[in-house]
Amino acid sequence: MSETVIKVDPEIFTEEVTQKFLKEHEAACQTMDYNTFLQLFLKYDLTQLEDFNKIVSSVLNNMKNWKEKALNVELLEVTSFDSKCIFCNIGNKVKVYQWKSKYPLGENSECAILHTCTIGFRFEFKNNRLTEYGTCNSYLDKDEK
């Protein structure tokens, strides 16, 4: 069980800013690149928020680990599904992203290891404004729903 959440100022995250952030967050999830996420967090100035270091560490470590396992790693696909938290915030919505990557076993080898990773994100809204953003790894798998 691990959940990291930051409270976002709804005065800063207007409806328009919330929609832009969500769109850019989705684009970042399609790359699963930790530099893209870091730039997103810096762009929306989330660094000032309490517990920012926890959330950024959670996200960036998850992204960094899959890519550093081998050279020439190839991202094959990113899928997502809606789920629900089963521990900290029982029943709250979680959007889970799953990415598959391929690790070549040698420079000229046709053999490779296929690897799958997942990360869940929580978004809380009030009046269409983002109020909380976080990660969760205690969610129902897409096959358990």
Question: How would you sum up this structure, described in words?
Answer:
The chain has 145 residues and is of the alpha+beta class. Helix 2 packs antiparallel against helix 3. The model has no long low-confidence stretch (mean pLDDT 83). The protein has one domain. Strand 4 (112-126) and strand 5 form a beta hairpin. Strands 1-5-4-3-2 form a five-stranded antiparallel sheet, covered by helices on one side. It is 30% helix and 35% strand. The chain has helices spanning 15-31, 34-43, 52-68, and strands at residues 3-7, 74-84, 93-104, 112-126, 129-136.
Structural class from helices and strands?
alpha+beta
Return the string of H and E elements: EHHHEEEE
Q: Give the overall silhouette.
A: globular
Query: What level of helicity do the residues show?
Result: 25-40%
Q: Report the span from N to C terminus.
A: 18 Å
Unreliable stretches (pLDDT < 50, length at least 5) are: none
Task: Going across the biggest sheet, name each strand in turn.
Answer: 1-5-4-3-2
Q: Give the tally of β-strands.
A: 5
List the helices and strands and how they pair.
Blueprint: E1 3-7, H1 15-31, H2 34-43, H3 52-68, E2 74-84, E3 93-104, E4 112-126, E5 129-136
Antiparallel strand pairs: 1-5, 2-3, 3-4, 4-5
Helix pairs in contact: 2-3
Give a quick rundown of the structure.
This protein is 30% helix and 35% strand.
What attributes does this structure have?
145 residues; alpha+beta; five-stranded antiparallel β-sheet; 3 helices; 5 strands; 35% strand; globular
